[in-house]
Amino acid sequence: MQRGSDRLSRHRDDEMKHELQGLLRSGHPTRSEEWNDPEPTADDDPQVWGGPVAPGSSGASLETVRLELARLLGRSSFPATSVELGRVLRRKNAPDALAEAVEGLPRKENYANVQELARALTRTEGPR
Predict the structure, then answer these.
(1) Full-prediction pTM beyond 0.85?
(2) Using one digit for the tens of pLDDT, what is the confidence trace for 97-106?
């Protein structure tokens, strides 16, 4: 029994179910319903969507590493040493490869911002 508090009428609800039927049954986008397909990535989009960004991996440019670090660390984490930044990354459940790369940087080096940290990570080849 319906109480009449639905936003859509019963007929519109059935119509929407019919529109999505091909997508729901097939599990992938259908050609006839292009309006429902996800937009493809642009050529200049960072590769963050492809998985965790780890310095030294393919596609890990300065920009993508900096973007991932900024997303995880924020401004309040700086200035700090690599050990302190590694702890913050572990606390925020960063990918292990990224946290290990940060912890592998020289311990006495102090980083003032994300840019300096990303430069140091992309300049080195891995943990020391």
Answers:
(1) no
(2) 899 999 999 9
Kindly give, in sequence order, each residue whose CB lies less than 8 Å from that of residue 40, ignoring residues fewer than 6 positions away: none
Residue 61, classified by CB atoms within 10 Å of its CB into exposed (0-12), middle (13-18) or buried (19+), is: middle
List Cα–Cα distances, 9 to 2, 5, 19, 28, 49, in angstroms: 11, 10, 15, 28, 38
DSSP assignments along 31-77, one per residue: TT-GGGSPPPPPTTS-GGGGS---TTSTT--HHHHHHHHHHHH-GGG
For residue range 40-53, what is the model confidence (pLDDT) as tens digits? 667 776 655 556 66
Four-residue CA torsion sign, 57, 60, 66, 72: negative
Cis peptide before 55 (omega within 30 of 0): no
Query: What are the angstrom distances between the C-alpha of 51 and each of 2, 39, 60, 68, 128?
Result: 45, 18, 11, 11, 24
